[in-house]
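Tutorial handout. Part one gives the primary structure; part two gives the three-dimensional structure as tokens.
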Amino acid sequence: MLLVLCVDLDDDLGRKTGFSTPVIGREAVEEAAVALATADPEDSDVNVIFQGIHIYDDLADRDESVEVAVVTGNDEGDVKANREVGDEVDTVLANLSTAEDVTALVVTDGAQDESVIPIIRSRVPIDGVRRVVVRQAQNLESMYYTIKQVLDDPETRGTVLIPLGILLLIYPLALIGSALEMPGFVIGTTSALLGLYLISRGLGLGKRLDEAVERARRSLYAGRTTLLAYVVAAALFVLGGVSGVNTLESVQESAGGEVGAPVMLAALVYGSVQWIAAAGVTTSLGQITDEYIAGSLEWRYLNAPFYVLSIAIVLHAVSAFFLDEAGISYLATALTVGTLLGIASTLVFAVVESRYSDGDGDDAGETPRTDSA
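Part two.
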């Protein structure tokens, strides 16, 4: 038996007419086609269903064993839609009352619906694929789907869009001389904005930004302290940057001119390290609080604030030494204290966690002996 299988991957039939799918049988399929044509005459899936009916009638007139059915997916995405189509194909095959081997002729309206062919082939052999397109718009949907696939595929998207975006960002640099003139300003601004958009699409920044906003929204409604800790840490980080720049300016003024790269880096670190350390401690404490509230806190998580303090002590001492704010003895002491603080916190919390776990086991083991005594 030949099964003429009309594929509607995004479920236009179900969404626009309310028909329950899959639709099996010539009369039911024709009724579904008329309903979809009435609801949306411009829908290309109308042509698919009527083409399936036409093929069925042609084969039936030749006394061939044939059946026609419509299977649909959903509009939630390719993976979910493909799975839905596979489930409906299984339903159609289960409802065929025939002892003959069943093969399928797939009828689609373009390349997008044909992406489900491997799913169908895994369930029933396919004799052929018939694509139905409007004659006035041949290849239009395929071209649209191809472009859409390029933009959705991370590897292809990055390969194509990022270089193009960089070229569009380079172009305004050639117009810097005429930036204040109206034609150059308009062209340069448009090219720069388009280049930034293409780079953001190539890197998938839009999706990542949406995910970050969604995570922040969930954290806000869930009452998580991490969100507040991140906001405070960001403010402390900015203050640290400002303090570092101010310290660098003071060092340059006292030196009477430019200073070397090591001294410049040391001044930036010396002025900002305490603020950045406070930001690190704030975020770690916020994360520890959320882990404790969620009941998933482990003792080793408490190492984070002490590690931040250890690193801050070491960086402060090294930068102070380069700026002649501290001597070699202070540097040695700070390096020793920072190292010992990190090691001590690691050992202490490891021992506490080990003893706490062993203590639970010992208590559980000692209870029967206490009762028996």
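Part three, for discussion. The chain has three domains: 2-141, 153-203, 223-364. The beta strands are 2-8, 23-24, 66-72, 103-108, 126-131.
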